[in-house]
Write a structure and sequence with these properties.
With 299 residues, the protein is α/β, with parallel strands linked by helices. The chain has eleven helices and 13 strands.
Length: 299
């Protein structure tokens, strides 16, 4: 694998997905996290566009990835298809039977612990190729530099009000701008990562209590799920949990409900092309306003 080789990942927020955010750049390559919600046809298009040479795929998405690679082979026979590496569930028996496929944990175990890190020639060298969600047209590729990723990570840590050693719950997909830059940002402040395969309200509450989570993120739909979750799935939080939301403003009613459950919501806005770039700074005097008025301001 040469310097600047594109290495794609198709996976939910599992530990291996987070590990690869570091491992791929440390090998001199460019990390390319793919949206798990895309169909195999669009994934094939992105694999072609990015010129991906290596594709790490979670075992639950293996058939989708395999179909995408097959489509790529049929429509672009002149291109060499990417090599697949399957990421099984850790400490469990995967129901998937694989033949002649590379497996992630096997490669990790066989790796050299004293390998030389391939550092960038320049801070403007690329570290990540991210694709937009494709809500207005086909997904567009955005190339992040090491400098841009570093500054975005610091900015997200600052906006999230993180101090040393936070515990972060991964409810923001890592394929969204590398988890809004916090894939690297949590490491900057020596934090602990709690990975979620899916953002289910019960799993969110369970993990907050079990791991003493201090921070998390979520788009407005995730906030809505938490606010309107079944009472049986909710648990008293050990302390106030900081939750950052981004994108379209959540309705004031959702903000009021979720804060009653023990969360404190801050609102940021950004694009794949810019990272999180705008933040609503909360004024102390707004704390004296009725909850309904606070919700309107946050929305």
């Amino acid at each position: 694998m040469d310097r600047f080789t594109q290495v794609a990942i198709l996976a939910p927020n599992v530990p291996a997905m987070l590990e690869l955010q570091f491992a791929i750049p440390m090998a001199g390559a460019i990390v390319c996290p793919l949206n798990t919600r895309l169909d195999s046809s669009m994934i094939a298009t992105l694999l072609k566009h990015s010129e991906t040479k290596l594709l790490f795929v979670d075992y639950q998405l293996f058939h989708k990835a395999k179909e995408a690679v097959n489509l790529l082979t049929k429509t672009h026979s002149e291109s060499r298809p990417p090599l697949l590496v399957v990421m099984p569930e850790v400490d469990s028996q995967s129901p998937l039977t694989l033949v002649n496929e590379y497996k992630y944990e096997g490669l990790v175990e066989a790796g050299a612990t004293d390998f030389p890190i391939i550092r960038p020639y320049d801070e403007c060298d690329p570290i990540s190729l991210n694709y937009t969600s494709g809500t207005t047209s086909k997904p567009k590729g955005v190339l992040y530099s090491h400098r841009g990723a570093y500054l975005n990570s610091l900015g997200c840590v600052f906006m999230h009000g993180m101090r040393e050693m936070p515990t972060y719950l991964w409810s923001v997909p890592l394929f969204h701008s590398n988890g809004w830059g916090l894939s690297w940002g949590i490491a900057i402040v020596g934090g602990t990562n709690v990975c979620l395969r899916r953002s289910d309200p019960k799993d969110i509450f369970d993990n907050i209590v079990r791991h003493n989570v201090t921070h998390m993120g979520g788009v407005p739909t995730v906030l809505n799920m938490i606010a309107n979750s079944l009472v049986a799935n909710q648990k008293p939080l050990p302390h106030r949990v900081e939750i950052m939301t981004a994108g379209s403003p959540p309705p004031p009613s959702v903000l009021s409900k979720i804060e009653e459950l023990g969360f404190h919501v801050s609102h940021a806005y950004g694009l794949t092309e810019t990272g999180l770039s705008t933040w609503c700074l909360w004024k102390p005097e707004w704390d004296l306003l009725p909850i309904e008025e606070q919700g309107k301001l946050k929305a």
